[in-house]
Amino acid sequence: MTQDVIFQTLGTLSGKSIGVVTLNIEKALNALNLDMVKAMTKQLLAWQQNDDIAFVVLDGAGDKAFCAGGDVRAIYHASIANPNTMTAEACDFFTQEYQLDYLLHQYGKPVLVWGDGIVMGGGLGLMAGGSHRVVTERSRIAMPEISIGLYPDVGGSYFLNRMPGKLGLFLGLTAYNMNAADALHVGLGNHFLASDDKQPLFDALADVSWSDDAELNHQQLSMVLNTQQQNTTAKIGQSPLEQFQTEIDQLMSGEIEEVHHQLTSLDTELDWLKRAQKTALKGSPLSWFLIFAQANLGTNKTLAECFKWELGISVNCCSYGDFCEGVRALLIDKDRNPQWRFSHASEVTAEAVTQLLTSPWQADDHPLKGI
Q1: Model confidence over 254-273: pLDDT tens digits?
Q2: CA atoms of 264 and 280, how far apart (whole Å)
Q3: Distance between CA atoms of 325 and 111, rounded to whole angstroms?
Q4: 104, CA 20 to 30 Å: which among 1, 111, 128, 265?
Q5: What is the pLDDT of residues 219-234, one digit of tens each?
Q6: Is 224 within 8 Å of 204 (Cβ atoms)?
Q7: Position 157 pLDDT exceeds 80
Q8: CA-CA distance, 187 to 203, in Å (whole number)?
Q9: Cα separation values, 354 from 196, 301, 313, Å
């Protein structure tokens, strides 16, 4: 039986090792299941305490994806079997996924994420936690949760609200696929290499004198990546998000009814914007309200507070929201014709939104109270 996630250590000339995590379900685009999350958390905690490990690399098997998101089928089946109930499956998966994401953000030692190919949803949650986030000419990065009745979780409440202008809201509503230049513009990527540069990068990393000083190792890793970036043959290209920042900000300005109207009446020749428009208008109307509530958090919450806020909403989406219907339409029956609870944003009731935004826990019994 092949392992869903593989852990290796690579030796270096300095005697220190590099811990390598490879997500290994290529046929499922390395989507995360609960067992993978548990195994990664356990190994990362061990490596964090191991002085022989200078830093960690996260990578995905194959050349199509780093990680296309979370494998949510188990949550779907549990939620269908127990309607209007918070299931252990939903609670466990989201709790442990967010704990893993938070661990990466707080890791201390450098974390290099090789963000080649598809990086979506839960994959972006992992990548956002890395200190060194490499994007390539093949990177396709998105938060497509609106299409399954969810919202950009995995820390999106933190990192989307810290992007330039209204880009975070735009990405949440439209599931727009960022290229490498886009990812650098919004701060999700911080280094650019060619997809073919991976092996030369590993070779270069093995030749560095790593130390016990995490800060020094951070600097040395940045230097290696900067040198590789200067020598790469790949072209980074244009960022539509940067190029059309002003237009996107105008499109996303106002309350939910205004933005919905602006997107509905948008007439554009830009193919990427047409796709974004179509996805937003086909997405869950309930998700629209969640994404606006998320954007309204601003930058006041800490990362830990964001994850706690998200956990309540994520489990509620599985119990009362559009999540099950979205997953059915996209992943189970694959008819791509979800019958959302409300057919239009104007029909969404305040009660339905409040129900989703009300946490099932108090502060002292919150599953994430320890972060």
Answers
A1: 999 999 999 999 999 999 99
A2: 9
A3: 36
A4: 1
A5: 999 999 999 999 999 9
A6: yes
A7: yes
A8: 27
A9: 48, 20, 10
Who's near 280: CB < 8 A, 6+ residues apart?
146, 173, 174, 175, 263, 288
The CA-atom distances, in angstroms, between 135 and each of 20, 116, 118, 332 are 18, 6, 10, 31
What CA–CA distance (Å, rounded) separates 231 from 234? 9
What is the pLDDT, as a whole number, of residue 141?
Answer: 98
Which of the following is catalytic: 59, 116, 137, 145?
Answer: 145
60 is known as an active-site residue = no
pLDDT at 363 (0 to 100): 87
Query: What is the separation of C-alpha 74 from the centre of its chain, rounded to a whole number of angstroms?
Result: 19
* Per annotation, catalytic residue among 4, 59, 137, 153: 153
Mark 173-208 as b/e (b = at least 16 C-beta within 10 Å): bbbbbbbbbbbbbbebbbbbbbeebbeebeeebeeb
Do 242 and 185 touch, CB atoms closer than 8 A? Answer: yes
The three-class DSSP label of residue 87 is: coil
Judge whether 237 counts as a catalytic residue: no
Confidence band for 2, pLDDT divided at 50, 70 and 90: low
Taken in order 218, 219, 223, 229, the sign of the CA dihedral is: positive
**314-341 pLDDT, tens digit each:** 999 999 999 999 999 999 999 999 999 9
**Which one of 69, 115, 121, 122 is the catalytic residue?**
122
Matching residue, tokens 């072209």: 235
The verdict on whether 122 is a catalytic residue reads yes
Is residue 1 over pLDDT 60? no
Counting Cα atoms < 13 Å in the Cβ hemisphere of 5 gives: 24
Q: Which of 355, 358, 353 is nearest to 290 (CA)?
A: 353
Instruction: Tokens 């609870």: give the residue.
Output: 341
Name which of 231, 224, 196, 199 is nearest 210 in CA terms. 224
C-alpha gyration radius of the chain: 20
